[in-house]
Amino acid sequence: MADEELLLRRLERERTARKAAEALLEEKSRELYLANEQLRLARDTAQASERLKTEFLANMSHEIRTPMTAILGYTELLTDPDLGSGGFADCLETIRQNGEHLLTIINDILDLSKIEAGKMTIERIACSLVELVAQVAALMRVRALRKGLAFTVEYVEPIPARVQVDPTRLRQILLNLLGNAIKFTEAGDVRLRVSLVDDEGQQGLLRFEVTDTGVGIAPEAQARLFQPFAQGDASTTRRFGGTGLGLTITSRLVEMLGGTIVLASAPGQGSTFTVTIDPGPLDQAHMLRAPFEVRPARAASASSAPPVRLDGRVLVAEDGPDNQRLISFYLRKAGAEVVLAENGEVACTRVWEAECAGQPFAVVLMDMQMPVRDGYEATATLRRAGYRRPIVALTAHAMGGDREKCLAAGCDDFLSKPMSREVLVGMVARFAAAGVPADALPPGACHR
Amino acid sequence: MKGVVFTEFLEMVEEQFSPEVADRIITASDLPSHGAYTAVGTYDHNEMIRLVSNLSARTGIAVPDLLRAYGKRLFGRFYLTHPQFFETASSAFDFLKNIEKHVHAEVRKLYSDAELPSFDCTTPHPDTLVMVYRSSRPLADFAEGLILGCVEHFREPIDVQREDLPDAHGTAARFSLRRRSQA
């Protein structure tokens, strides 16, 4: 009997232990399944992102090759003896347009990769809403009028005098949406409506509505509109131009500003893009009603300004022969005397020679990436030795932070390549006009 | 404490003493688990301490001796159940130095919640291995048994000296293993 009881107790323990083991097994299996699901999800996400990257690259390559083909093709055409003078001018205009388009693509790609990499930072600065909108409107009005479109800005009063936003990014958003509206509208008008909308008892949200009477967007196309390289339809690029990145960048920027972007559109009935962003803390005492006093925004109309004249000597430190020639040509045409240096080392020598000969340079244009000694080092060396005349950095590095790097090396200002003739000459003129400090060199510098 | 330590212990008691002794000490220990252990489960280490104490009371063998004997036996069982851990080790020193890296790492893969003791190893001399055992549980005797089991397994002439660390009460000890020169 005692043995039987012992066996029964053992049996009971074994049974309990088995059930505990089974329960554990079940629990572990479930954990394993869930872990597998998570891994599967992570794998799918990684694969999808890989696919998107490949597609992006393929699209990018296509977008770059298209204007490149035109540039190279038309350049070759220029050497054709049968090309008349009219054809010559046409070729040049086509090359210029495609070059500009290429630059837009590169800038858009840089912007988008900066956003995707989380490198784009958003700041909040107090600024005048009316002034910001007026600046944007001044640029866009010219473009709309050129196409024969009416362009109106409407404020729903009252609106805040000052808002705390990132003015650069907000400007970029508005320029993009208005630019699109003008591009896709053949007749009628483009409107920008600015209002402060109720935010469930909160202080309110800033709303911008961009409405056009253009081609409109089919519902099925609306969904992929904010995806990179997915314009309304595949033929859009050819009919209207553009990189297919504008709305992607715009929507990401809106997101980064903590806002939303909504589209209402139908084919043939125009479109309205509504952007709503947080205006930051508002001063309710300073609400504006029309008419607003706006400092006149200067429309960038280069052609009407008289050409800038330069005098004095300019050192161009640049290692690329083509850029050397181009920059020299621009500056000499404007009246400057140009001295060239093919690297940073030579640039330093030329600066000292000029100083000692009593013929100093009014401005040094310094390419930052050069052989032997680069522009950062050359600038820093000159500054350390006490050189105080203007040095302007000239660089093809156009990412955020490059400007700061140039200024930190001792440059007075920064120009990113490619730069237009007007901007280059304007910059040199500005520094040349500022005059040369009498004590630009420390005493005794010429006797070393 | 992992269930395998309990199941192996009870098997040892059944074999070395009798199933009846095992049953008695389980009953006497009044365990939260009622002694129904599964190797893959996790149980309070105090259950082990109660079981060993009751086994000692019943058999008249001192607790440290029981723990050492059990450690030695468990190491032998370990070789049978997990031969893969022995594939790369050619000597006792080899095996013991890699406990953290190989054995404990594998345990953690299966049981992320396992509370494992640590063995800090130093080799002041090619024929000397010093292992400092530290645990949240007072089981230095058990650790000693495992080390002795390892030495026995590799059939090497190694002397094991144990020194309890001050105020550790069995939770920390220094083991000095010296290989005798084989004349």
Description:
The complex is a heterodimer of chains A (448) and B (183). Chain A has helices at residues 2-77, 85-116, 129-146, 167-183, 219-222, 236-240, 246-256, 321-333, 344-356, 375-384, 402-409, 421-433; strands at 125-128, 150-155, 159-160, 162-165, 189-197, 205-212, 260-265, 271-277, 287-288, 313-317, 337-341, 363-367, 391-395, 413-416. Chain A is an alpha/beta fold and 448 residues long. Chain A has 3 domains: 27-116, Helix Hairpins; 125-293, Heat Shock Protein 90; 313-447, 3-Layer(aba) Sandwich (Rossmann fold), CATH 3.40.50.2300. Chain A has a 5-stranded mixed β-sheet, covered by helices on one side. Chain B is α+β, with helices and mostly antiparallel strands and 183 residues long. Helix content of chain B is 50%, strand content 16%. Chain B has helices at 3-16, 19-29, 45-59, 63-81, 92-97, 99-110, 140-154; strands at residues 118-125, 128-134, 158-164, 172-179. A 4-stranded antiparallel β-sheet of chain B has the order 1-2-4-3. In chain B, a hairpin with a 2-residue loop joins strand 1 and strand 2. Chain B is globular, with a radius of gyration of 17 Å. The N and C termini of chain B lie far apart (43 Å). The mean pLDDT of chain B is 92. Chain A binds chain B through residues 6, 9-10, 12-18, 20-21, 24-25, and chain B through 19-20, 23, 26-27, 34-41.
